[in-house]
Design a protein that fits this description.
The protein has 79 residues and is mainly β. The protein is 9% helix and 28% strand. It is globular, with a radius of gyration of 12 Å.
């Protein structure tokens, strides 16, 4: 399956070919989850990313849909 991914914050720097204007298309195995996508993109849990599919926030175990629009947001930290 293929999903369209937009990365926000500094996450786009993880992929050398990433364009913030166009995003990136990622191919995954059928039945892949949000957690599988994060692993494919090498985005660690420690960064506490928020993953949304078609404007709905997902948990790591939620399955992705073929052709879905995915947004991954970097959590904000500071003091």
């Amino acid at each position: 399956m293929k999903v369209s991914v937009q990365l926000f914050g500094l996450l786009g720097r993880k992929l050398p070919q990433y364009s913030s204007a166009e995003g990136v298309e990622i191919e995954l195995n059928d039945g892949s989850t949000a957690g599988d996508l994060l692993e494919t993109l090498s985005i660690p849990d420690a960064w506490a990313p928020a993953v949304a599919m078609n404007s709905r926030l997902l948990r790591r175990e939620d399955m992705l849909a073929d052709g879905a629009d995915i947004r991954i947001f970097q959590s904000v930290h500071g003091g």
